[in-house]
Amino acid sequence: MGYDVHQLALGRPLIIGGIEVTSPKGSVGHSDGDALSHAITDAILGAAGLGDIGLFFPSDDATWKGADSKVFLIKAIKMISDKGYILNNVDSTVILQSPKLQKFIPEIKKSLSQTLNLDEVNINIKATTTDKLGVIGEGLGWACMAIVSVEKNT
């Protein structure tokens, strides 16, 4: 499983699963701030016992400044492949007060499917709010959770 959280700020792009979502506020991050891709990357690495995203893509490393988070996903898939694993499925939850994401989910799934080389039917994305509670509900941040399953490639 993986988890990530980022601050939101006016005038920044909001990238979710590799797609720019129309929003007045976007993610503040060292890379592109794509918390969904970060949570999925973390889950993929963890499922194969490789540690976490910060081990391979630390936020204090200039290499990843402004990086497209699809790179993290691609590298994580390569790392688990090198250990003899393949990705089976992804289940995720985006926690964001605004904007509502339902209309963006098909495009996000398509983007993740292409990046992960995984059939869209094996990718699930849920979206929820915190009903205006806490920093997420106040629009100051957003979070994502993801869980994946992998299997040994025989």
Relative helix content:
25-40%
Instruction: Name the beta content range.
Output: 25-35%
What is the ordering of alpha helices and beta strands? EEEEHHHEHEHE
Globally, the shape reads: globular
- Helices and strands: which structural class? alpha+beta
Mean pLDDT: 97
The low-confidence parts are: none
Beta strands, count: 7
Question: Please, could you describe this protein's structure?
Answer:
There is one protein chain. With 154 residues, the protein is α+β, with helices and mostly antiparallel strands. It is built from five helices and seven strands; from the N terminus they run E-E-E-E-H-H-H-E-H-E-H-E. 30% of the residues lie in helices and 31% in strands. Helix 1 (35-47) packs parallel to helix 3 (70-82). The longest helix is centred in the first third of the chain and has 13 residues, at 35-47. The chain is globular. The two termini are 23 Å apart.
What characteristics describe this protein?
154 residues, alpha+beta, five-stranded mixed beta sheet, two-stranded antiparallel sheet, 7 strands
Please render the helix and strand layout as text.
Layout: E1 2-10, E2 14-16, E3 19-21, E4 25-28, H1 35-47, H2 53-56, H3 70-82, E5 85-95, H4 105-116, E6 123-128, H5 134-137, E7 141-152
Parallel strand pairs: 5-6
Antiparallel strand pairs: 1-4, 1-7, 2-3, 5-7
